[in-house]
């Protein structure tokens, strides 16, 4: 037990320390019971099963991408590794039901085939030293891809089709746990809402740091998050001629609100753009976009202040639902 004479502030931080320790944030040594599987229909998509300590004012600074990451924060995030011609490429995907993930089409388009892709679900960061994936998160799944479904109206050589840069990856049915759980899709009426100036969140599997000393980038394959602001399409299209051709009502543009060197990189392609919405007694996370393009072709990461283009998901719901009829969606 803690010392009853301990100062109240010390008691508070003592309990926080124990909480983090026993949730595998600090050293991963505490043992937890494996979460029970959850119903694949009687579920609330996009919900979390814990308090987001990273949003508490006193502790938010501890949970930057450079320090600590809470377990189970994003149970719908998938790491997609494509190995073609001996070269691995990392992208990010999002679980939307029990057997399909959404990602960017340019990550998995021809000549890539299903057998070239591996999907990992249920863990946050594979760069934690001296820890196995099972220790970082007890519910870890690595699975093959059964089928790639490409949006028919995307052409990688035509920037005007960026709004169709979507692909569905079919995997074997998964059982939902606290670490493997689907995000909530928007509704068909959401496309009539203006999301300009909304603060959203994006997460991905590639982080980069710009170094002034060598005027280049050093990258590492790690999981990270960033806060972004959705900007108006009018402002985005006026950024330069390239954006003028790419931006239309079926895309969303964002601008960073974080650190100067915190722009997305190639591994972020396919990353989700997410907003939180209050539902019943808890918040749910809604998928509003999939990262299509950002970084210039001759650089691994985007420059700070350059808009990032996401495919707007509410406009693509008919295509998504038509191609996932064999899947089980959460009822709520």
Describe the structure in your own words:
This protein has 332 residues and is of the alpha+beta class. It has 2 domains: 77-182, Thrombin, subunit H; 188-314, Thrombin, subunit H (Beta Barrel). The chain contains 6 helices and 15 strands. It has helices at 8-21, 105-108, 133-136, 233-237, 241-246, 317-322, and strands at residues 77-84, 87-95, 100-103, 117-121, 141-144, 147-150, 167-170, 199-204, 207-211, 216-220, 224-231, 251-256, 272-279, 282-293, 308-312. The strands form 3 sheets. A 7-stranded antiparallel beta sheet has the order 5-4-1-2-3-7-6. Strands 8-11-12-15-14-13 form a 6-stranded antiparallel barrel. A two-stranded antiparallel sheet has the order 9-10. Residues 21-37, 62-69, 124-136 and 207-219 have low confidence and may be disordered.
The proportion of strand residues reads: 25-35%
**Gyration radius, in Å:** 20 Å
The CATH homologous superfamily of the largest domain corresponds to Trypsin-like serine proteases
- Strand adjacency order, main sheet: 5-4-1-2-3-7-6
Q: What is the molecular shape?
A: globular
Architecture of the largest domain in CATH? Answer: Beta Barrel
Largest sheet: 7 strands, antiparallel
CATH domain class name of the largest domain: Mainly Beta
Quaternary structure annotation: single chain
pLDDT < 50 stretches: 21-37, 62-69, 124-136, 207-219
Specify the number of helices. Answer: 6
Q: What is the distance, rounded to the nearest whole angstrom, between the alpha carbons of the first and last residues?
A: 41 Å
Order of helices and strands: HEEEHEHEEEEEEEHHEEEEH
Structural class: alpha+beta
Helix fraction by DSSP (H/I, runs of at least 4): 10-25%
CATH domain fold name of the largest domain:
Thrombin, subunit H
- Work out the number of β strands: 15
GO molecular function: serine-type endopeptidase activity
InterPro entries: CLIP_Serine_Protease, Peptidase_S1_PA, Peptidase_S1_PA_chymotrypsin, Peptidase_S1A, Trypsin_dom
Keywords: Signal
Domain Peptidase S1: 43-325
């Amino acid at each position: 037990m803690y010392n009853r004479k301990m100062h109240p502030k010390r008691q508070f931080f003592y309990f926080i320390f124990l909480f983090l320790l026993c949730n595998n944030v600090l050293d991963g040594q505490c043992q937890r019971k494996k979460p029970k599987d959850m119903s694949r229909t009687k579920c609330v998509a996009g919900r979390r099963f814990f308090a987001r300590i990273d949003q508490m004012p006193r502790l938010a600074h501890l949970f930057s991408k450079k320090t600590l990451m809470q377990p189970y924060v994003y149970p719908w995030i998938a790491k997609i590794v494509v190995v073609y011609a001996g070269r691995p490429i990392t992208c990010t995907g999002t679980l939307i039901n029990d057997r399909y993930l959404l990602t960017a089409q340019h990550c998995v388009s021809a000549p890539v085939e299903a057998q070239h892709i591996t999907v990992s679900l249920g863990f946050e960061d594979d760069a934690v030293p001296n820890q196995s994936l099972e220790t970082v998160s007890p519910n870890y799944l690595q699975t093959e891809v059964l089928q790639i479904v490409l949006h028919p109206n995307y052409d990688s050589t035509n920037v005007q089709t960026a709004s169709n840069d979507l692909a569905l990856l079919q995997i074997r049915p998964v059982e939902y746990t606290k670490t493997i759980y689907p995000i909530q899709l928007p509704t068909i009426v959401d496309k009539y809402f203006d999301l300009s100036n909304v603060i959203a969140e994006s997460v991905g599997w590639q982080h980069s740091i710009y170094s002034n000393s060598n005027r280049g980038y050093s990258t590492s394959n790690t999981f990270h998050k960033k806060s972004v602001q959705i900007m108006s399409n009018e402002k985005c299209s006026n950024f330069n001629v390239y954006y003028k051709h790419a931006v239309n009502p079926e895309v969303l543009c964002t601008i960073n609100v974080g650190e100067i060197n915190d722009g997305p990189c190639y591994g972020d392609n396919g990353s989700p753009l997410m907003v939180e919405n209050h539902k019943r007694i808890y918040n749910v996370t809604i998928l509003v976009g999939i990262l299509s393009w950002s970084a210039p072709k001759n650089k691994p990461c985007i420059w700070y202040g350059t808009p990032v283009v996401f495919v707007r998901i509410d406009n693509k719901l008919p295509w998504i639902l038509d191609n996932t009829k064999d899947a089980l969606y959460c009822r709520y």
